[in-house]
Amino acid sequence: MGPYSGNVFSDKLIGTNHVLPTQRAARYTAGLSVHMFLKHQTYQEVSEEGAAKLEPWATKQSVLERLEGHAKSSFMRAPENELREYDSATYELPDS
To answer: Rounded to an integer, what distance in angstroms lies between the CA atom of residue 77 and that of residue 71?
Structure first.
């Protein structure tokens, strides 16, 4: 910004860049920067109690989406499974 802030400084030395994303992506992301070349990783940790609460919901959602591997993965991680059998099409979701 200002009369002394030439593009050459941003391109060659400062690090900001005037290259903008295409195909309307500039609506939700900034211009090109070093962050575009970094890999962002996310992690999760679910406790035994958390798995027991999440399992019925995750299993049902996976069944509805016909993702059998996901359903089995969820089902087997519940310490005290609230669902009587895995292969049932009549799951009832827990309240709240």
So the answer is: 10
CA distance 45 to 78: 14
* Domain residue spans of the chain: 7-34, 44-96
pLDDT confidence of residue 96: 47
d(CA 86, CA 83): 7
Q: What is the torsion angle, in degrees rounded to the nearest 10, for the CA atoms of residue 81, residue 85, residue 70 and residue 41?
A: 0
pTM of the predicted structure, to 2 decimals: 0.49
Helix (H) / strand (E) element for 72: namely helix 68-77
Q: How far apart are CA 42 and CA 44, in angstroms?
A: 7
Q: Does the pLDDT of residue 4 top 60, yes or no?
A: yes
Residue with tokens 């709240």: 96
Q: Distance between CA atoms of 49 and 61, rounded to whole angstroms?
A: 19
